[in-house]
Specification:
It contains 25 helices and 28 strands. By secondary structure, it is of the alpha+beta class. Strands 14, 15, 16, 18, 19, 21 and 22 form a 7-stranded antiparallel β-sheet that branches. Strands 2-13-10-3-9 form a 5-stranded mixed β-sheet. A 4-stranded antiparallel β-sheet has the order 5-4-7-8. The structure holds a DNA duplex.
DNA sequence: GATCCTCGAGTTCT
DNA sequence: CTCGAGGATC
């Protein structure tokens, strides 16, 4: 049965009106009707849709209630990566940032867009032909999770863009957050229903966004603010960042009203101070301000360094500090036997979380700060993450406060504690006798960047080691289901999951395996270098210190650590056992040794962007033939490889009369045609 | 021998 | 994130 024309028109009218009010409320922050009036319109539309189910449209404002739970989140790859920003903590750092920008752009004065830095979660929204089709979390910056159903429940995110001719494709970057008042009422509800309260709005928002059941998200009252554009197709690209944000606002997306175009360091510092004053009065929490070079052409010229843009910086507010008391100072034993003093603190709420522990790093550091048990101390979260004891309040020191002394013997295994004369750390000399070191070695072995055995966490390793069920990493590969049966809190299902993860880890890479061994001074980067250089584990194991030193970035100390590790019969045995259990990887030919390649002993410096090859690819090609790639030009440099937008290094090369190659020239050289 | 840079290792909380 | 140490460079 067709819906009467009049009803259809009525529904359209209501939807348009509700969307207009949403726009005024969320985007312009200037509601034109009372909440009661808005509710009345909303109810009327709901009723109409209820009476005429065929009216229901997924883009109707009534459809923001969430749907049934999904089994999991899909992974989404961002078309352009969502990078993080570098931080500045002082005026000096901001001045240095501005200076770098001016030098690179060769101008005297830069126009910036300044805005608050939201303490929320970065997300990306994709609109096709003006329709909201996908929303994703930032994730690691390259891939995130598809949270579209959850974001559909966020009322300030338009399901359709305003205007007659929306762009064919638009990817909007912005932040999801929770207003303080919504956070307070959420916690009130949690309290009332005897559920766990959230520590801060950020966590509540994060929890809300990661719900598999979007109906829960809908109940969290999340907000969204846009601050950038990832991809535009089918519309003119704005000339400046501020113009882009104005345009986003015209399209119906909420953009922060505190944003300002300012000039030079003075403008930046004025904005910083102003936001510091306004901070407490805002609806949402911010942890600093962001400055972006306003001209998009200039942004492009500035480009990126590793993972962060050179055209923007986050100027953070000073970390919040709090007072608390040192209840005890305990000692932890790390993978290498390092003894680390840790302060147990009376719980204190600082920077959005309750802190109970803080590392004191080592004996010297502890002495410098002179922290004693019973002391009253000032605590902050360094870089807003890791708790740190800033200072002791000396006036409040009780008479009985006890100074800490590093134990003479290991608190875990009783072995002697040794501190080498020119080292800062004291170490347990017990080696693998020490249960703490064995546990840490296993955790390292299983960690994500090593063998990546999911589910083999601290609790499980504690039990396995305490029961002597596992002594070495090789033992992991010889465990059956039965070994888990007697463990506490281990259901058969989760035991199977761990076994499966262990099984999966057998298929690995040489670099991961070398890293997993936990050789002293051999981290991820060195392990990769070793794998590339030797190509096979046997060749690595047979290498003497002399041969090891040929590997870039390996000097006498690291070479000694590696040789010593493989000289140990026990270590060789464990490796053999693992190989016998089926741990395997692909081996390759050893890379041409530096003294043999065509480019042996030649030093290269790369600058600018080459048309086809990436920096890493070029580096690999040069190193494959025994050449070296250095960071800066000096008299020792043999060639400079320059691409587009080459900078000071090219100038220096010309000054010193060093041959400069372009990509084609480099390729010819590599092929031996020169 | 001094200095810059990168890597390794240890750490917190959700 | 922060510190310390190792390596490379001048």
């Amino acid at each position: 049965m067709a819906v009467p024309k009049a009803v259809l028109a009525e529904a359209h009218k209501l939807r348009a009106e509700i969307e207009r009010h949403n726009y005024h409320y969320y985007v312009l922050d200037q509601p034109v009707v009372s909440d009661a009036e808005f509710d009345r319109l909303f109810c009327k539309l709901q009723q109409l849709e209820h009476e005429h189910p065929e009216l229901v449209d997924p883009e109707s404002p009534t459809q923001r209630v969430g749907g049934s739970p999904q089994p999991e989140f899909r992974q989404v790859t961002h078309r352009t990566p969502m990078l993080s920003l570098n931080n500045a903590f002082s005026e000096e750092e901001v001045m240095a940032f501005d200076r770098r920008v001016r030098e690179r752009l060769e101008v005297d004065r830069v126009e910036y867009l300044a805005e608050p830095k939201f303490d929320g979660l970065a997300i990306s929204l994709t609109y096709e032909q003006g329709r909201f089709i996908r929303g994703a979390t930032r994730g690691d910056g390259y891939t995130g999770e598809d949270v579209t159903p959850n974001l559909r429940t966020v009322r300030s995110i338009p399901l359709r863009l305003r205007g007659k001719a929306p762009p064919g494709l638009l990817e909007v970057r912005g932040e999801v957050l929770m207003y303080r008042r919504d956070f307070d009422s959420l916690n009130q509800r949690q309290r009332a229903s005897d559920e766990k309260e959230f520590a801060n709005p950020r966590n509540a928002a994060a929890g809300g966004l990661r719900q598999l059941d979007s109906r829960i998200t809908a109940a969290r009252a999340l907000r969204f603010f846009a601050y950038g554009v990832g991809v535009i197709e089918g519309a003119a690209v704005p000339a400046s960042h501020s113009a882009a944000e104005d345009w986003l606002q015209d399209l119906g997306l909420p953009v922060c009203q505190e944003r300002r175009v300012v000039h030079a360091v003075q403008g930046l510092m004025r904005f910083y101070q102003r936001m510091g004053e306004r901070r407490a009065g805002l609806h949402y929490e911010i942890d600093g301000v962001v400055y972006k070079v306003n001209s998009l052409a200039a942004q492009q010229r500035l480009g990126y360094v590793s993972r962060a843009p050179r055209f923007a910086i986050a100027h953070k507010f000073p970390a919040e500090e709090a007072n608390t008391e040192v209840l005890a100072i305990e000692v932890q034993v790390g993978r290498t036997g390092a003894l680390t003093p840790v302060a147990r603190l009376a719980p204190v709420f600082v920077g959005g979380v309750t802190v109970t522990n803080a590392t004191l790093h080592n004996e010297d550091e502890l002495q410098r700060k002179d922290v004693r048990v019973g002391d009253s101390v000032i605590v902050r979260r360094a870089g807003d993450v890791i708790p740190e004891v800033v200072a002791v309040v000396r006036d409040k020191r009780p008479k009985h406060a006890i100074a800490f002394k590093m134990p003479m013997t290991c608190p875990v295994c009783g072995s002697a504690v040794v501190r080498l004369p020119d080292e800062a750390v004291a170490r347990c000399s017990g080696g693998l006798i020490c249960a703490a070191q064995r546990k840490q070695a296993l955790l390292h072995f299983a960690s994500r960047r090593a063998m990546d055995i999911e589910g083999l966490g601290e609790k499980l390793v504690d039990q396995l080691v305490d029961r002597d069920a596992v002594k070495t990493a090789a033992d992991l590969y010889r465990m059956g289901l039965a070994a888990f049966a007697e463990l506490e809190r281990m259901a058969e299902k989760s035991a199977q999951n761990v076994l499966q993860a262990i099984e999966r880890s057998k298929n690995t890479t040489l670099a991961r395996f070398i890293f997993a061994l936990g050789i002293r001074n051999v981290g991820e980067a060195t392990a990769k270098e070793l794998a590339r250089h030797f190509g096979s584990l046997d060749r690595l194991m047979q290498a003497d210190e002399e041969a090891l030193r040929q590997v870039p970035d390996i000097g006498p100390v690291v070479a000694f650590s590696i040789a010593q590790f493989f000289a140990e019969a026990h270590n060789r045995e464990v490796i053999e056992q693992m190989r016998a259990c089926g741990v395997h990887w692909e081996e390759s030919e050893p890379r041409v040794a530096a003294s043999l390649g065509r480019l042996a002993g030649k030093a290269f410096v790369l600058t600018g962007t080459l048309p086809k090859l990436s920096r890493d690819e070029v580096k690999e090609l040069i190193e494959a033939q025994g050449g070296k790639v250095a960071g800066s030009v000096s008299r020792k440099t043999d060639y400079v490889v320059a691409g587009a937008e080459a900078g000071a290094k090219l100038a220096k090369a010309e000054e010193l009369g060093i041959p400069v190659l372009d990509e084609a020239g480099l390729l010819e050289l590599l092929k031996g045609k020169r």
